[in-house]
Amino acid sequence: MYGGETTKYESTFPNPLAKHGEKIKKNYGLQYAKAIYSQWGGIDSENSLYARRMREFNISRDYANGTQDTSIYKKILTSLNPNDGDGSLLSLDWTPVPIIPKFVKIVVNKILSANMSPNIEAIDPVSKTERDRKKAKVRFQVENKDAISEARDLGLDVGVDADRLPQSSEEAEILLQGTLKTDAEIAAQLATRLTLAWNEFDERIFRRCVEDLVTCGMGVVKRENDPNYGIKETYVDPAYFIHSITDDPNFTDIVYAGHIHRVSISELKRIAGDQFTEEEYEKMARTVMNRFGNNPNKFGTTRYDGILDRYNYGYDEFTIEILDFEFVSVDDIIFEEKTSKFGNVGFYYKGYEYSIPKQSIYDRKPVYMQNTTLYGGKYILGTDYLFDYGLKKNIPKNVHDLTRTQMSYSAIATNIRRMIPKSMVSGIVGFADQLQISHLKIQQSIAKAKPDGLIVDIEGLENVQLGKGGELQPLDIQDIYEQTGIFYYRSKNPDGSFANPPIRPLDNSIRNINELIGTYNHYLRMIRDATGINEVVDGTTPKGEQLVGVRQQAIQAANNALYDITNASMVLYRRVCSDIVKCLQILPLKSALYQAYENAIGKENMNVLASFRDLPMYNFGVRVVSDMNEVDKAYLEQNIQIALAQKEIDLEDAIAIRQLKDVDQAEQLLIIRRKKRMRQQQEMAMQNSQMQAQMNQQTAMATAQARMQEEQMKAQLEAQKIQLETQSKAQLLQLEYQLRSEIEKIKGQFSLASQEVSSDAKQSLETQKEDRKDERVKKQAVEQSKLISQRKGERPELEEEASILNLLLNK
To answer: What are the extents of the domains in the chain?
Structure first.
């Protein structure tokens, strides 16, 4: 297969009942490695199991990439010898139609889009008791949610947020199924996800494994557990994976496994270190100097490296194959049963080797316990060299049976027969070939299509030049037809008349184009039927072209057809996670790796995981949780929209339901929230009815009270009116009496005043009369005096009299 001949080893497996001391020797491991080499047909033989499976996988991968060999199509379509044709007479595009690559991508992306993640659950009795205790605590908090809220409002530290608690015990039970975790489960889940992230498992390894399951029908992952370098997950190409004979696609019964990988001798020196001498490396190089593209001319070249102070040999660049293998064995662990001087019997661990001490004063005897162990190493194919061989350490154990061990390889196949898996791609290779031939035939028909032409009856035409010799040869007529689409022929009836017009149109279409297109579609349908990838899954059919129920049935049919691949990928993911969890529990406490995990997930979490040293060890079960598929998601969303439209749930309820990954839990939560909402609506309706009745009753009572108050007010007003009238009459009478009294009094006073005024007036009148009389007398005297004074020329008297007269006048 590789273009070179190597030594064929006919070896048998060594004695499986050998003692540990013999198994640990390199000769035992070398014999086991050679037996593996021999069982797989010498590996280099063209008819070996290894070569046959390699060819199967390579063919499937070529078709999955759309790069398959086109020589078979050239042999079928060539116009020369079908058994040795190269298609040189055909000018066609031989590029394969990328139908299979499209279907492979659809399946791979469909599986990866599920977003798988590990869900770690402790299944031992201790963890179950702790989980039940936590569930009881949550139920108690839910049942006393109101009291907790009141205590929080009073300022008390209740240690829990009442607003984030489930709304009912039924809802709490649903949510606790996937969210309630013990301390050990939380620590294991954090550490597992961290390990997957450190290894870039989802992006770098799992995608390739899913592609292998679709293309080759097998996926393999190898775990390397080293206290210093960590838990390392490595992708293994299934074409290079070898294992013991099995028909179990889960590979649970294999006793050995390994994989072949190629490295340069320079890289081998780095890996093996000082386990080999330079002479041994030279011997290894001789076995591969004409293989794997190695240049034999470089074998004897040598160059001194002054910087590194060493010699570089030309064969350091040679590629060599290494078989990294491991096998399961059973060793006896020996305990010594010893009786003390007090008669007590004790058991003491003695390891794998034991001999009874001579002249012992106590009774001693060995007690054997069978323990499953794992040995492994690296074998350089085609040589007698083995390195890194020995008993595997840091092997994860099963808590139910600590005597059993687990191999480093996690392998899964969709199915397997006679050691060769059958994949989805290998099952449609034949249909893809026929589809490709139909595609090439369509190209050929299009290339040979003739333009529209004329049929010319030469016999019906006169004076037509037929060429130099006067006649047209058959090939000349064919060339004329091929170039122009015109076909010449002679046609006469037996009586010499012409059967048809001498010139008629000749309509030409592409030959058999409809039949070839039908053939192409037929094989495309065969591929769809074989894979289960229908038009709905790959999005070929428009959304509005089919009913929702029909589309869901088509999607479900595709899910059923792809179940083997989907289930195999989930099993592989779960095994890797389970393997990581077991490895985490046996990390040495003082290792650098333990410190790295402690810094990443916390000291307390790692203390919980490291409880293996105390026993009993936590026994974890790993479930792979993925997003809902499109059918379940669409069905759930439809129910949510219906419930929202009918106002049976709130928007917050819809958000909480969509966050759940499990469709069963989501549906249960939808039912509970819907029932609760309907119950609340009924209670609100009853409350509204009661409130309406109370309001009506209160309105009636208020109306009656208003009427009574109105009558009372009328009576009070009437009484007040009567009282006011009485009071007003009394006051009027009293006022009238007072007024009359005052009038009489005024009259009396007026009469007295009148009498007094009359008397005073009479007296005053008399007085005034006398006064006026005196004044006239005086005035006359003054006037006379003035006249006398004037006559005599005496002015003072006149002035004094004048002032007196003025004074009297002013009065």
So the answer is: 663-810
Two tokens, residue 612:
């293996």
Distance between CA atoms of 416 and 248, rounded to whole angstroms? 7
The DSSP letter of residue 361 is S
Nearest CA to 580 out of 125, 251, 224 is that of: 224
Contact 259, 54 (CB under 8 A): no
Residue 93 tokens, joined: 């595009």
Cα separation of 412 and 231, whole Å? 20
The tens digit of pLDDT for each residue in 488-507 reads: 666 666 666 666 666 677 66
Least confident of 110-119, 205-214, 304-313: 304-313
Query: Which token pair is 452?
Result: 């529209």
Structure tokens at 701: 């009572």
Amino acid 274 reads D
Contact 212, 153 (CB under 8 A): no
Residue closest to 265 by CA, chosen among 316, 205, 210: 316
Q: 438-485 pLDDT, tens per residue?
A: 888 888 888 777 777 777 766 655 545 555 555 666 667 667 777 777
H/E stretch holding 657: helix 651-658
**What's the residue count for the chain?**
811
SS3 143: helix
Q: Which residues pair with 387 in a beta bridge?
A: 378
Residue type (1 letter), 234:
T
Q: Which residues contact 374 (CB under 8 A, 6 or more apart)?
A: 326, 327, 328, 329, 391, 392, 395, 405, 406, 407, 408
Strand (E) or helix (H) holding 374: strand 364-380
- Residue of 228, 258, 233 whose CA lies nearest to 377: 258
Backbone angles phi, psi at 331, to 5 degrees: -120, 155
> DSSP of 421-463, one letter per residue?
E--TTGGGHHHHHHHHHHHHHHHHHHHTPPPPEEEEEGGGSSS
Residues 6 or more apart whose CB falls under 8 angstroms from that of 236 comprise 220, 221, 222, 259, 409
DSSP 332: E
Give the integer Cα–Cα distance in Å for 468 and 803: 187
CA atoms within 13 A on the CB side of 49: 16
526, burial (CB in 10 Å: exposed 0-12, middle 13-18, buried 19+)? middle
Mean per-residue pLDDT of the chain: 77
φ, ψ of residue 84 to 5 degrees: the values are -145, 35
Cis peptide before 238 (omega within 30 of 0): no
CA distance 363 to 341: 9
Residue 332 near residue 289, CB atoms below 8 Å: no
The predicted pLDDT at position 238 comes to 94
Say if residue 414 is exposed, middle or buried (CB neighbours under 10 Å; 0-12, 13-18, 19+): buried
Q: Which of 286, 347, 342 is nearest to 313 (CA)?
A: 286
**Secondary structure of 557-573 as H, E, C letters:** HHHHHCHHHHHHHHHHH
Using the structure block, give the residue that is written with the tokens 């008993």: 391
Instruction: Read off the amino acid at residue 309.
Output: D
Q: Contact at 8 Å (CB) between 161 and 207?
A: no
For residue 407, give the nearest of 398, 396, 417 by alpha carbon: 396
Residue 325 near residue 377 (C-beta atoms within 8 A): yes
Q: Note the pLDDT of residue 30.
A: 93
Strand order in the sheet with 409-413: 230-236, 218-226, 409-413
pLDDT at 206 > cutoff 90: yes
Instruction: Label residues 745-760 b or e (16+ Cβ within 10 Å = b).
Output: eeeeeeeeeeeeeeee
The whole-angstrom separation of Cα 520 and Cα 533 is: 17
Contact 572, 212 (CB under 8 A): no
Instruction: Count Cβ atoms within 10 A of the Cβ of residue 95 and give its class: 0-12 exposed, 13-18 middle, 19 or more buried.
Output: exposed
Structure tokens at 346: 């004790």
Q: Report the DSSP beta bridge partners of residue 760.
A: none
What are 219's strand-pairing partners?
412
- Greatest pairwise CA separation for the chain in angstroms: 206
